[in-house]
Amino acid sequence: MTNTQRFPGESDAYRAARDALLTAEIDLRRRVEAVAAMRRNLPPGGPIKENYVFDEGAADLTDRDTVVQTRFSDLFAPGKDSLIVYSFMYGTSGDPCPMCTALLDSLNANAPFVTQRVNLAVVAKAPIQKIRDFAHQRGWENLRLLSSGNNGYNTDYSAETPDGRQIPPLNIFYKSAAGIHHTYNAELLYADSDPDQHPRHADPIWPLWNLFDLTPEGRGSDWFPQIT
After folding, report:
1. What pTM was estimated for this model as a whole?
2. How wide is the angle at C-alpha 47 spanned by C-alphas 46 and 50, nearest 5°?
3. Confidence tier at 1 by pLDDT (50, 70, 90)
4. Chain-centroid distance, C-alpha 22
5. Contact assessment for residue 81 and residue 178, using Cβ atoms and an 8 Å cutoff
6. How is 104-161 classified by DSSP, letter by letter?
């Protein structure tokens, strides 16, 4: 590892520690890519349980009257075979999840780029009008928003507990000549966490926490985003 970059006023002790960190960062980059390759090379998962029918609204979020039924298979645009589905914790009662809201604020900005290559959808259990009213407040003009209130998607793909508590999984599906198959769920959400860690299952798509990881304060142990 060779790096000749230096910054004003740094000490020899700082440079030694930073070089050691750089070695670790290079190793981490290799490990991240190795894990990504394992993810890409997973065999096909199970076929989609059913061609779920979701409630969906018009492109204009201020249109509260238009509601159409969209089948799961309709979420695949021509020439795009992968589908990313994020489950937004917004149930039939209660308020939208602040953590999900923070993630979706950033995902909304990236959605026009994401959908140049793959399909993207956000699913919540709340009625479609409630989802869209909140989305209008947040300015989520770029997200495809669906209500699963009238189907079993949440239960089948681990976005809801038997008692109705909402969970925020990230699921990936793939369409081929063999049909639509589930390929990935960010299962860190369900696995035991290391001490003093949250599941961190959505870290790869969430800039907020990755930015904090670059700072001396880090993520902290008791701070969570609030809806403002």
Report:
1. 0.94
2. 125
3. low
4. 28
5. no
6. HHHHHHHHHHHTTTSEEEEEESS-HHHHHHHHHHHT--SS-EEE-TTSSHHHHTTSB-
* Residue 190, CA distances (Å) to 19, 47, 159, 160 in order: 36, 21, 11, 12
Q: CB–CB of 138/158 below 8 Å? A: no
Quickly count: other Cβ atoms within 10 Å of residue 163's Cβ: 5
Which residue, chain included where needed, has tokens 């390929």? 183
Q: For the segment 190-205, what is each residue's pLDDT rounded down to a tens digit?
A: 998 888 778 889 999 9
Contacts of 127-135 spanning 24+ positions with Cβ under 8 A: 127/55, 127/92, 128/55, 128/56, 128/57, 128/67, 129/57, 129/64, 129/67, 130/90, 131/88, 131/90, 132/57, 132/61, 132/64, 133/64, 134/90, 134/96, 135/61
Taking a C-beta distance cutoff of 8 angstroms, is the pair 186, 39 a contact?
no
Q: How many CB atoms lie within 10 A of CB 207?
A: 15
Rounded Cα distance between 23 and 68, Å, is: 53
Helix, strand, coil percentages, rounded to 5, for the chain: 35, 20, 50
Which residues neighbour 203 within 8 Å (Cβ) at sequence distance 6 or greater? Answer: 209, 210
* Token pair 């790869």 in the structure block, residue: 204
Which tokens hold the place of 6?
């230096």
